[in-house]
């Protein structure tokens, strides 16, 4: 059998370890809460803006802010379809026509910046509602 003093010392060490863990976890919660404006997310599941390539187009009509799960603020209300289907490149520029200025404003860009993005980045597309989305072109050969 172990002597009572060794057992008491071991118990004290375990108690101190538990207190230290509680303090560290509490500090982490406070820091995370402060950096998120006092809101603690109910879900710890990360989200991604990349969409897998599928035969049916994904719903890109409601882009979400992945941190808060809310829509980004808009300078003015936007309703109605801008395109019949998501498009990129020169095809999107041509199909938008006079609507390109509205789409550029909707995405916080100038017309020139939007055109440059669509021509330069092949993964960038304009959704049917006029938001810039990025299509994941990675193919998993599993």
Layout of helices and strands, plus pairs?
Blueprint: H1 4-35, H2 89-96, H3 100-106, H4 111-120, E1 124-126, E2 132-134
Antiparallel strand pairs: 1-2
Helix pairs in contact: 2-4
Briefly characterize the structure:
By secondary structure, the chain is mainly alpha-helical.
Radius of gyration: 26 Å
Question: Mean pLDDT, as a whole number?
Answer: 76
The biggest sheet, with number of strands, parallel, antiparallel or mixed sense and barrel status, is: 2 strands, antiparallel
Q: What gap, in angstroms, lies between the N and C termini?
A: 58 Å
Which structural class should the secondary elements be placed in? Answer: mainly alpha
| C-alpha geometry | elongated
Give the helix proportion (percent range): 40-55%
Helical element count? 4
List the domain count as a whole number.
Answer: 2
Secondary-structure element series? HHHHEE
Which percent range describes the beta-strand content? under 5%
What spatial order of strands do you see in the largest sheet? 1-2
Total count of strands: 2
Poorly predicted runs are 38-68, 73-77
What can you tell me about this protein's structure?
- The protein is mainly alpha-helical.
- The chain folds into 2 domains: 1-40; 48-142, no CATH class.
- 40% of the residues lie in helices and 4% in strands.
- It has 4 helices and 2 strands, in the order H-H-H-H-E-E.
- The chain has helices at residues 4-35, 89-96, 100-106, 111-120, and strands spanning 124-126, 132-134.
- Strands 1-2 form a two-stranded antiparallel sheet.
- Strand 1 (124-126) and strand 2 (132-134) form a beta hairpin.
- Helix 2 runs antiparallel to helix 4 (111-120).
């Amino acid at each position: 059998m172990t002597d009572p003093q060794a057992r008491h010392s071991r118990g004290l060490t375990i108690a101190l370890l538990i207190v230290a863990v509680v303090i560290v976890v509490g500090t982490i919660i406070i820091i995370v809460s402060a950096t998120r404006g006092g809101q603690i997310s109910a879900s710890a599941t990360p989200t991604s803006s990349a969409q897998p390539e599928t035969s049916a187009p994904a719903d890109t009509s409601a882009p979400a802010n992945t941190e808060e799960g809310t829509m980004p603020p808009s300078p003015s209300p936007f309703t109605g379809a801008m395109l019949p289907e998501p498009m990129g490149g020169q095809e999107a520029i041509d199909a938008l026509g006079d609507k390109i200025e509205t789409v550029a404003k909707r995405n916080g860009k100038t017309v020139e910046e939007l055109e440059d993005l669509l021509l330069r980045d092949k993964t960038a597309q304009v959704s049917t509602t006029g938001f810039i989305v990025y299509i994941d072109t990675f193919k998993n050969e599993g």
